[in-house]
């Protein structure tokens, strides 16, 4: 076994221990979730047992991380990011920019005009307008965001966003698993003040 491969394998155990502790899990709790024994998990973390796919796959699923994040595989030398656009209904396009489940997910979206329909779900979202105008509805409040403006909000609040007119709008969309109080950071204009709570003129929260 060459030195580089040995180093990669040696790093898996400490990485597993860090992930478990970051999530506040005991070995007993992790064993109950994965179906592995406490002894096996302990030996993996200490490096006394060699990791195999049979052991790493259920751990990656439990921790909700990509398998290569556990292994920390070296880069292939190809710096290109191979994006796969997904075409949604009404002519919209979604391009996932991250691939790690359970963490903040980043998308580039082109939203085509469509009728508003408020939704709610667990999580927290950030929207950054790249081109066009974005109409954002939060409960009974509504505002229009222009290129360079940002909004963030708790998705447990009824919400909808899409083009503010008949043209498509292009945005960066970040979705996180946590939920906080809604804060709109878009800079208000004189003709469209939008929500004023928790926002200041320079776009930072008060």
In a few lines, what is going on in this structure?
The protein is α+β, with helices and mostly antiparallel strands.
What can you tell me about this protein's structure?
It is a single chain. With about 210 residues, the protein is α+β, with helices and mostly antiparallel strands. About 25% of the residues lie in helices and about 25% in strands. The protein is built from five helices and nine strands; from the N terminus they run αααααβββββββββ. The protein has helices at about 5-20, 25-35, 40-45, 55-65, 65-70, and strands at about 85, 95, 105-110, 125-130, 135-140, 140-145, 150-155, 160-165, 170-175. The strands form two sheets. Strands 1-2-3-9-4-7 form a six-stranded antiparallel sheet, with no helix packed on it. β1 (about 85) and β2 (about 95) form a beta hairpin. The longest helix has 20 residues, at about 5-20. The protein is elongated and about 60 Å long. The chain starts with a helix and ends in a 30-residue tail after the last strand. The relative contact order is 0.12. The model is unreliable at about 180-185 and about 195-205 (pLDDT under 50).
The total count of strands amounts to 9
Rounded radius of gyration (Å): 22 Å
- Name the strands of the widest sheet in spatial order: 1-2-3-9-4-7
- Low-pLDDT runs of 5+ residues are 179-186, 193-206
Order of helices and strands: HHHHHEEEEEEEEE
Number of helices: 5
| Helical percentage | 25-40%
The biggest beta sheet is recorded as: 6 strands, antiparallel
Mean pLDDT: 78
Shape: elongated
Tell me the span between the first and last alpha carbons. Answer: 57 Å
By secondary-structure content and strand pairing, the structural class works out as: alpha+beta
User: Strand-residue fraction?
Assistant: 15-25%
């Amino acid at each position: 076994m060459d030195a580089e491969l040995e180093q990669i394998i040696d790093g898996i155990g400490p990485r597993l221990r860090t992930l478990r502790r970051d999530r506040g899990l005991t070995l007993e709790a992790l064993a109950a979730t994965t179906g592995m024994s406490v002894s096996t998990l302990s030996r993996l973390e200490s490096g006394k047992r060699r990791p195999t796919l049979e052991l790493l796959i259920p751990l990656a699923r439990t921790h909700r991380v990509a398998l290569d994040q556990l292994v920390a595989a070296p880069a292939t030398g190809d710096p290109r990011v191979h994006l796969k656009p997904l075409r949604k209904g009404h002519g919209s396009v979604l391009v996932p920019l991250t691939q790690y489940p359970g963490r903040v997910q980043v998308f580039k979206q082109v939203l085509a005009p469509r009728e508003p329909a408020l939704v709610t779900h667990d999580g927290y979202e950030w929207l950054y307008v790249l081109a066009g105008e974005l109409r954002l509805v939060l409960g009974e409040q509504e505002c229009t965001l222009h290129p360079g403006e940002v909004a963030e909000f708790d998705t447990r609040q009824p919400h909808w966003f899409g083009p503010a007119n008949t043209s498509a709008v292009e945005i960066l969309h970040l979705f996180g698993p946590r939920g906080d109080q809604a804060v709109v950071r878009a800079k208000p204009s004189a003709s469209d003040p939008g929500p004023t709570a928790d926002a200041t003129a320079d776009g930072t929260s008060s």
